[in-house]
Write a structure and sequence with these properties.
122 residues; 7 helices
Length: 122
C-alpha cells in the first residue's frame, strides 16, 4: 500500500486549520453546547483543553511555518490564558460543558478566543 506524501506546506496549512477550528470552538458557547448535544458521550470541556494541548506546539518547525511571528505571539497569549484558567478550575475537575460555560474561567477563555479569532482572521 502506497503512503500518501504530504508536503510541509500542506501539513503546516492543516495545522493552522486545526488550531483555528479549536479557537473557533472556544469562541462559541453555542457550538460547544451543540457539540455536547450531538456527541453526548464526549467530555467537551476536557476535549477543548486536550485538543489545544495536542495542537499547540510553538517550537515545532511546521507550527512556525503555519503562523507568522505576530500570530505566534497572539497564540502564546491565548496559551497563557488557557493555562491560567485551567489551573484555576482543574483542582475541582473541569465541569461538564453545560456548567462550565457559566464559570468565570470559561468566560475569560472565551473572551480571549473571540479576540484572538478576530486578530487572526484580519
Amino acid at each position: 500500500m502506497d503512503k500518501e506524501i504530504i508536503s510541509d506546506e500542506e501539513m503546516a496549512s492543516r495545522i493552522r486549520e486545526l488550531i483555528l477550528e479549536v479557537i473557533e470552538l472556544w469562541s462559541s458557547k453555542e457550538a460547544q453546547l451543540e457539540y455536547q448535544k450531538n456527541v453526548p458521550f464526549a467530555d467537551v470541556s476536557a476535549e477543548l483543553f486536550g485538543q489545544w494541548d495536542v495542537l499547540y506546539n510553538p517550537d515545532d518547525r511546521l507550527f512556525k511555518m503555519a503562523f507568522n511571528a505576530s500570530e505566534q505571539n497572539l497564540l502564546s497569549v491565548f496559551e497563557k490564558v488557557l493555562t491560567r484558567e485551567f489551573t484555576r478550575v482543574s483542582p475541582y475537575n473541569v465541569p461538564d460543558i453545560e456548567q462550565f460555560v457559566y464559570t468565570l474561567e470559561w468566560r475569560e477563555i472565551n473572551k480571549e478566543a473571540v479576540a484572538l479569532l478576530k486578530k487572526l482572521k484580519n
